[in-house]
Amino acid sequence: MISTTRNLLSIKRLLNIHRLQPRTVAFIHTGQIMNSIKDLSENKWQPQDALPPHIKELLTTGSAPSNYMLAFLQIIRSLKFQKRTGWLDHEIPEEATESIADHMYRMGVISMLVPKGVDSDKCVKIAIVHDIAEALVGDITPYAGITKQEKHRRELATINYLSEVIKPYNEVFSKELLDLWLDYEEIRNIEARYVKDIDKFEMIQTAWEYEQQFGLKHNLDQFYTSRSAIKTKEIGDLCDALLEKRNKLVEDSKAK
User: Fold this and answer.
1) Could you read off the pLDDT of 235-250 as tens digits, one per residue?
2) Does residue 133 contact residue 158 with C-beta atoms inside 8 Å?
3) How far apart (Å, rounded) are the C-alpha atoms in residues 232 and 187?
């Protein structure tokens, strides 16, 4: 059953790629969305390939440091427009689907509430940069036809590229950006562990909210399985409180 579900989602994803292709191309020209998940080739895609000409022009040799900052801001702007792919794959209406920036913003707020002894400032910073590479890479799900290794290669190449883009303007931030991203990816400290858990919890929270909004017709059950990946007690307890309410929602729906 799991294999069948994954195959169906893969088919849906491919259909969505073709369905959204004209819109994606249009956004490339307006600078809103610059990545292309349609390129499934291994060890080929590079972050520079996703940049539109008007941003490349800012990054020409000899540009003023401010141009690098302006280019960096235009690149990450696309996070405000890119919809989270998993919800689209489950046919959540596009106009109701959260963006990558929406997800990271609420993670940042939740990160302010970590328990005493955990550096909340560091948690917030990790939260708001952990998906920043998706500005160029895109939100690649396990069903997109891209291997886990290739996804990591693209994201690592992109975070290194973004670090280099901002370096002429602020070398300290350039290093911090890369360090924060690596903290998250490699779970190098307790703050990264909390943010990893907050990432899962925020996703589960969103699934529950969509079910409250649209009912159970979108079959979001798989998102709740991420509870098992949450390791910290505080975030786990919060998630369990949510799951109790979600279970009641399911029971009430079946009783109707």
Assistant:
1) 999 999 999 999 999 9
2) yes
3) 13
- The C-alpha atoms of residue 110 and residue 253 are separated, in whole angstroms, by 29
Question: What ranges in the chain are assigned the alpha helix state H?
Answer: 2-30, 53-58, 65-77, 85-89, 100-111, 120-129, 134-137, 148-166, 171-186, 190-214, 221-224, 233-255
Q: Tokens 């307006």 map to which residue?
A: 30
Inter-CA distances, 252 with 102, 215, 243, Å: 29, 11, 14
- Alpha carbons 155 and 158: distance in angstroms, whole number: 5
All structural domains of the chain: 2-255 (1.10.3210.10)
Give dist(CA 225, CA 188) in Å, integer.
24
Q: Tens of pLDDT along 69-87?
A: 999 999 999 999 999 999 9
The answer to whether 73 and 54 are in contact (CB under 8 A) is no
